[in-house]
Design goal:
The complex is a heterodimer of chains A (about 300) and B (about 250).
Chain A (H helix, E strand, L loop, with lengths): L2 E4 L10 H12 L3 E7 L3 H8 L6 E6 L8 H11 L5 E5 L2 H13 L4 E5 L1 E4 L2 E6 L4 E7 L4 E5 L15 E3 L9 E8 L12 E5 L6 H15 L2 E4 L1 H5 L20 E5 L5 H7 L4 E6 L12 E4 L2 H12 L1
Parallel strand pairs in A: 1-2, 1-4, 2-3, 3-10, 4-9, 5-9, 12-13, 12-14, 14-15, 15-16
Antiparallel strand pairs in A: 6-7, 7-8
Chain B lengths: L1 E5 L2 E3 L21 E3 L1 H15 L5 E8 L3 H10 L4 E6 L6 H15 L3 E2 L13 H9 L3 E10 L5 E8 L2 E8 L2 E5 L11 H7 L4 E4 L1 H4 L7 E7 L8 E3 L2 H11 L4
Parallel strand pairs in B: 1-4, 1-6, 4-5, 5-11, 6-10, 7-10
Antiparallel strand pairs in B: 2-3, 7-8, 8-9
Classes of the chains: A alpha/beta (about 300), B alpha/beta (about 250).
Bound molecules: flavin-adenine dinucleotide and adenosine monophosphate (AMP).
Subunit structure (chain B): Heterodimer of an alpha and a beta subunit.
Family (chain B): Belongs to the ETF beta-subunit/FixA family.
Cofactor (chain B): AMP
Chain lengths: ~300, ~250
């Protein structure tokens, strides 16, 4: 039976995490349909139709899918689920929001955040902040799965397949978007960045967070991330948080500046290719996962590093 | 309005867990257990709503082994009015918990249910959304701010999303899951811990609630993740740059 992948997008642009979910679907095997639900989102459907591995794109275009409210989206997915063996979505904030609703309405388990496909019914997922990997087998008729993007390559481009329009479901009217406050940044998106510079509590203030980390990030062409402590203290926006309960990242280079390395933080970045830690405490746990550790005061080291890289 | 707060007993967030050598699971012998941190945030939010005169009663619910009573007593010490234990030794998965909570909601008719966004043991991030689906209620996940409107028929919830924040308005009754920025939970004081011992704690079972809790996912094995091989300390910025360029080749 075919697999259904739910595309993530903002009605204009397809989010890259969709490509990682499609890769996971390719590993499961079989035809892959992509569902694009939104409003005035034909461009997204066209982009999805050009992703390697996709058999067909199904497009639902209606005003009440514009904001991707979980209630309407889940109901639509469930209405179109018959005939599919697997329903996949990226394990992003959006995927985590609506997908468990789909699973519950289908009366099946959800397999969250998979990092490997063992067979059509068996998957690997991290538990306990990534301190253990569980191999789980589903006994349900439909497998509802969220996919950790960092564990699967992004699917590439191919010649376009067909886009077929589907009927919209009803507007359940259970919730309404009031507004969004999106962090404005010219930097690469955290989960897609090749290099990340992340700051911790040691930065001490929002001003320092910017004045110390940005020149370093500029010199490296990096995205900026943060520990929970830095976010809680208001030094950085919430969507910068890397970790068990924030974003999972795996860049080529991760530079941790004034971050102690709590297990919850490590859970979000320990699959990075190369880790650099700058911390004044030689015993800080971050050094246990760092390929290169530099013991020193970040207020000296970070500017010196930025200067050396320019 | 009545608020229901599901609380889960989990391994304390400070514990670095160990995988059992036979690969059957996590070694929980003599490990410190606590209330799931997101559920502490949920209790705090509910109690603040009661203190503000918006909520009338806060009911804490936990499903699991008999020792989840301890977690419920903590919830009572933090300000919940009464507690319900759904006792079972079956390993509960999110769908089963959601069904149990649905059964409790049908009896208790809360206006708001506040689970945590994620249990830090299974890291599922499912239960609240599943409960909302089963009840046909709206949901507001990953909440960092809640404002209940004057006639308590709706609420505005600010949610932490990828890229920033979003505010939605949901009709009540609804399910709202907590994120870390919603509030800073208080500590239980000794007098409140003493008082909590006298607050009502009712026990029921999945069978009494008419819910089948059989697991849908079979855990075949639990393994330790690959460890990173130990790195080196560099003496200064010059050496770091040299290594990144010539050894790691990432810049
Ligand atoms: C339920 C739950 C979920 C969580 N989720 C996450 C998560 O997703 N992500 C996350 O990051 N955390 C998370 N945490 C928090 C985590 O446990 C830690 O509290 C947090 O990661 C610590 O942040 P930090 O390293 O910035 O601060 P600290 O632990 O305070 O470390 C600061 C470090 O800076 C060093 N330092 C101080 N001054 C200087 C200086 N001048 N120069 C150089 N170094 C200096 C210190 O030596 C120290 O190592 C979570 C916690 C809980 C309970
Ligand atoms: N056994 C349980 N008893 C009570 N509440 C639970 C239980 N399991 C999960 N929950 C609630 O659901 C939330 C999310 O858990 P999960 O979906 O497992 O990540 C938790 O923060 C709790 O509020």
């Amino acid at each position: 039976m075919p697999i259904l992948v739910i595309a993530e997008h903002d009605n204009a642009v397809l989010k890259p995490a969709t490509r990682n979910a499609i890769s996971a679907a390719t590993q499961i095997g079989g035809d892959i349909d992509v569902l694009v639900a939104g409003s005035a989102c034909a461009a997204v459907a066209e982009a999805a139709a050009r992703i390697a591995g996709v058999t067909r794109v199904r497009l639902v275009d209606a005003a009440h899918y514009a904001d991707h409210g979980a209630e309407n989206l889940a109901a639509l997915v469930v209405a179109n689920a018959p005939g599919y063996s697997h329903v996949l979505a990226p394990a992003t904030a959006a995927g985590k929001n609506f997908l468990p609703r789909v699973a519950a309405l289908l009366d099946v388990a959800q397999i969250s955040d998979i990092v490997a496909v063992v067979s059509t019914d068996t998957f690997v997922r991290p538990i306990y902040a990534g301190n253990a990997l569980a191999t789980v087998q589903s006994v349900d008729p439909v497998k509802v799965i969220s996919v950790r993007g960092t564990a699967f390559e992004a699917a590439g481009e191919a010649s376009p397949v067909s886009v077929e329009a589907l009927a919209a479901g009803p507007d359940l009217g259970l919730s309404r978007l009031v507004g969004r406050e999106l962090t404005q940044s010219a930097r690469p998106e955290l989960t897609a960045a090749r290099v990340i510079v992340s700051g911790g509590r040691a930065l001490g203030s929002s001003d320092n967070f910017h004045s110390v980390l940005e020149p370093l990030a500029d010199a490296l062409g990096a995205a900026v991330g943060a520990s929970r402590a830095a976010v809680d203290a208001g030094y950085a926006p919430n969507d910068y948080q890397v970790g068990q309960t924030g974003k999972i990242v795996a860049p080529d280079l991760y530079v941790a500046v004034g971050i102690s390395g709590a297990i919850q933080h490590l859970a979000g970045m320990k699959d990075s290719k190369v880790i650099v830690a700058i911390n004044k405490d030689p015993e800080a746990p971050i050094f246990q996962v760092a390929d290169y550790g530099l013991v020193g005061d970040l207020f000296d080291v970070a500017p010196a590093l930025a200067a050396a890289l320019r | 309005m009545k608020i229901l707060v599901p609380v889960k007993r989990v391994v304390d967030y400070n514990v670095k867990v160990r995988v059992k050598s036979d690969g059957s699971g996590i070694d929980l012998a003599n490990v410190k257990m606590s209330m799931n941190p997101f559920d502490e945030v949920a209790i705090e939010e509910a109690v603040r709503l009661k203190e503000a005169g918006i909520a009338t009663e806060v009911v804490a619910v936990s499903a699991g082994l008999a020792n989840s009573q301890e977690t419920l007593r903590t919830a009572l010490a933090l300000g919940a009015d009464r507690a319900i234990l759904i006792e079972t030794d079956v390993e509960l998965q999110p769908l089963a918990v959601a069904k149990l909570l649905k059964a409790v909601c049908e009896k208790e008719s809360p206006q708001l249910v506040i689970p945590g966004k994620q249990a830090i043991d299974d890291d599922s991030n499912q239960t609240g959304q599943m409960l909302a689906a089963l009840l046909g209620w709206p949901q507001a996940t990953f909440a960092s701010k809640l404002v209940v409107n004057a006639d308590k028929t709706a609420a505005a919830v600010t949610r932490e999303i990828d890229g920033g924040l979003e505010t939605i308005e949901i009709a009540l009754p609804a399910v709202m899951t907590t994120d870390l920025r919603l509030n800073e939970p208080r500590y239980a004081t000794l007098p409140n811990i003493m008082k909590a011992k006298k607050k009502p704690l009712e026990t029921t079972t999945p069978a009494a609630l008419g819910v089948d809790v059989a697991p849908r996912l079979k855990t075949l094995k639990v393994a330790e993740p690959a460890r990173r091989s130990g790195g080196v300390k560099v003496a200064d910025v010059a050496e770091l740059v040299e290594k990144l360029k010539n050894e790691a080749k990432v810049i």
